[in-house]
Amino acid sequence: MVILKIIAIIPTHKRNGDFNRAFDSISNQSRPADRILIVHEKEDDYPHLLSGNNIHATINKRTKSLSGAINHAIDEIILNRHDWKIELDSTWLALLDDDDWWDAEYLEKCVSLVDEQCHQVVAGLTRYDLSNPEGFNLSVPNRTSM
Q1: How many other β-carbons are positioned within 10 Å of the β-carbon of residue 18?
Q2: Nearest of 128, 118, 124, 123 to residue 138 by alpha carbon
Q3: Is 138 a member of any domain?
Q4: ∠ CA 108-26-116 to the nearest 5 degrees?
Q5: Cα–Cα distance for residue pair 50/34, rounded to 1 Å
Q6: What pLDDT digit, counting tens, does each position of 18-36 carry?
Q7: Phi, psi (deg, nearest 5) at residue 103
Q8: Strands (DSSP E) along 41-141, which ranges?
Q9: C-beta of residue 122 within 8 angstroms of C-beta of residue 139
Q10: Domain enclosing residue 75, as ranges
């Protein structure tokens, strides 16, 4: 049996209050991430002094955008794959923007889908804003084909 590893990636850019909420939602998962990778947009965005064997913070060296931050995170994973004991077939990436958060069972639910031989999980979102303070669910397709 293959042991699944999850790397949670948080791209962040000067949103300390939001970042703390996002980080706490990752830290309090019922199925914890095996590694948390924080990608700061620039060096002066690097205020988070977090400790722990499973936390890695880095500065985005790619295009200054969400895509660039994710690509930089993948570069870091490849660079550190031996030290972090990363196996390509059993490692999943979970992306969380710094102004969002996950329900406590989010990763556990994603893992249950992975066990069904899915290759990608697109989660539904609940949007909260001034017009809808109680939130409303955004639609997501039941299945996607590749």
Answers
A1: 16
A2: 124
A3: no
A4: 20
A5: 15
A6: 888 899 999 999 999 999 9
A7: -65, 155
A8: 55-59, 91-95, 125-129, 132-138
A9: no
A10: 5-120
Is 108 a member of any domain? yes
Residue 40: count of CB within 10 angstroms of its CB: 23
Q: What confidence tens digit (pLDDT) does each residue in 76-111 have?
A: 999 999 999 988 888 999 999 888 888 899 899 888
CB of 136 closer than 8 Å to CB of 127: yes
Residue 28: both structure tokens together: 């309090």
Distance of alpha carbon 53 from the chain centroid: 17
User: Which pTM value belongs to this model?
Assistant: 0.83
| Residue 45 near residue 25 (C-beta atoms within 8 A) | no
Tokens representing residue 90 in the block: 């059993």
Inside any domain, residue 142: no
**CATH for 66:** 3.90.550.10
Count the neighbouring beta carbons within 10 Å of the beta carbon of residue 75: 15
In a domain, 133, yes or no: no
**11 burial via Cβ count (<10 Å: 0-12, 13-18, 19+):** buried
Number of domains the chain is built from: 1
Are β-strands 125-129 and 132-138 bridged in parallel, bridged antiparallel, or unpaired?
antiparallel
